[in-house]
Fold this sequence. Notes:
heterodimer; A: 561 residues; alpha+beta; 9-stranded mixed sheet; two-stranded antiparallel sheet; 13 strands; B: 209 residues; 5-stranded antiparallel sheet; two-stranded antiparallel ribbon; 8 strands; DUF3726 domain-containing protein (chain B); DUF3726 (chain B)
Amino acid sequence: MTQSGDHIARRDPGIVMRLKxxxxxxxxxxxFMRSLTxxxxxxxxxxxxxxxDIDDNGVGHAVYTAQGPERTYSLVAFAHxxxxxxxxxxxxxxxxxxxxxxxDGIPDDADIERLSKNVPLQEAGRVSNSxxxxxxxxxxxxxxxxxxxxxxxxxxxxxxxxxxxxYLMRTTAVYGSGKLGAIDREGIxxxxxxxxxxQAEMLSVFLTRTFARDLVQHMANVKGGDQAVRLDPAIxxxxxxxxxxxxxxxxxxxxxxxxxxxxxxxxxxxxxxxxALKSASESEKALFETVLSxxxxxxxxxxxxxxxxxxxxxxxxxxxxxxSDHLSSTGLAxxxxxxxxxxxxxxxxxxxxxxxxxSLILEPYDEIVDGLATCMADSNKDAFVIDGxxxxxxxxxxxxxxxxxxxxxxxxxxxxxxxxxxxxxxxLEPRLGERFEEPIEDYEQPLAPARDAVAAFKAMESFDAxxxxxxxxxxxxxHRHTVRRAQISAIAPYGEIRDNTISATVRPxxxxxxxxxxxxxxxxxxxxxxxxxxxxxxxxxYPEELSTANADLWVYPxxxx
Amino acid sequence: MSYSLNEMEATxxxxxxxxxxxxxxxxxxxxxxxxxxxxxxDGSAYLVxxxxxxxxxxxxxxxxxxxxxxxxxxxxxxxLAVGSLLSDCAKHLQHTPIEMHNIAVPSMLxxxxxxxxxxxxxxxxxTCDGLLAETxxxxxxxxxxxxxxxxxxxxxxxxxxxxxxxxxxxxFPTKESWNSLNQFAHRTYAPATEESRKLGAGAxxxxxx
Lengths: 561, 209
């Protein structure tokens, strides 16, 4: 029986919000994919594929519907015959193997006709407020042909080849929130099923994985005729959907401090609640040990060619051994077992290992954790509004609280401001450049909150500490964005990254991973310091298999696999 | 063509920055344009009128010197600078009306008045050269649109209880104003070079495997 214990404070933002740690986060019970599959199973969503009109060359369209208690959503998929030389994950690509939109309702022929002229063009097309997201995907060259050939010739694909990649298709962008003319987030945020962040995007990707499975089967059937066999459902279950995430996502977490705070704070609150438990029941301990052993399988399957991630994985493997030894010797027998475990991890494990433990201890506690998912959206629109009556000294104190560390940084040193974030003329996507080597400084985006905070703090020195900040802002509009952020930090303590986002050594992949871990991604595979591949929904039930029994822990592969 | 309000907001922010305003004021302007669009007004056209007035070339000429007294500048007042100041001074409105002289595009003040109204939880009345507008932050009541410039604007709390109004969920900017916003926005985009294409987004390992 679980006993409540003393209050344990959430971890200090000064520890949590360092980039190295944010770049080591793992999925947890609160991840958006798992929230979605749990809800769909609990509410008995039904799924269908009313249209699969794809020809022998793999060209055509398909519609997948997901029907919840109040509304139906449809993934409209367009399959294309893409010349291999045009296949690129980069945002500058102009054609893809498949393109998608999540339609609000069930599309009629006129909708399909309209969408067929726009969705395949992606950024060059327009959608309407009947569409919630727009996305695209490319085939994995390594796996696609192998799957088609194997199934066509009557064989199942080779598990080693599958393990090396993990998915048949990877999405390269999923646009929501009003992009390309789609409906605004505000237009759907009050729907129960879409209230948590990114639920529509996660639904789109969930259905896209099904489309990839169906399309590869279709192509194998075309090729093999009577010889072709059906893909073994167990193999299909292990397939995820890949995703390539580029630099464009990194500024998101800086530009949405309240939202990002809500994600981190929900997880930190969950961790604190579990740490505060005085004891754990045998079944709770057993569940933790099960997900831990299943996580060992995940880490074992986790491949990366990138030196940074290779080193981190070595560390994580060593952490898992230490953790195993620690649990064998000390176990979870002490009072406050989870708090003891976390305290030990902080002294013994790398950030990768510490954050894995932090995520795993939440697993036995759906009742005290899952409700926090409702706190993860940002509905506080007026957090944007500056309180001009706040005194200069209060704003300075808020800056010190978040950015105290930044006062020790020499902001005149080249190395500390070597980079600048800018938006390129092409595709209007964020990029990161070398401030002193490229002509980009004039185009710099406000993505260096720490540098700007120190500058604003210094500019306030000549103002009376008791004066209202309105007077300062009247004279110094260049510091307005910083004062806004400082005031937001008072209600969003986890909203600011506590590291230099423009230093010569900044690694945007750390920012990408922080965001993607909340989606529920696994197997982070950086392809440079600025873009990363991940796997989503590997192990998840397909729509027709979804039930309350398999809707949650699918993210952990079976230990025997 | 219709645009999502998020598209309007994002484009307005870039445009305002492109016209030379600080990022903080660009954020204000983008929320303001969005709010006007949600009221069924052409926030895009109003913002373009402000940006085309070149008030950001020498900002101190277009803002009051102090928060106290009647607000006037050496030249006409910029509604983005003064609007932000008005929002910052919301609490002053609790007891004292704010008066200002010689304002460019006074309609652009309305979203900032709305911010102040929400902060105070009260209706606020704007008297602009004899024309009235009232907002409680979400609803806007206005019989006649303000002229392009105003000699005198007085902003004061009001006891009027406003009926809720229906908000528009899409923006319908004129082609001209949308193009103009995008031209201003374009000034914030770094010209693409082969180097930035390769390095800026991080080429790295193969993306076609």
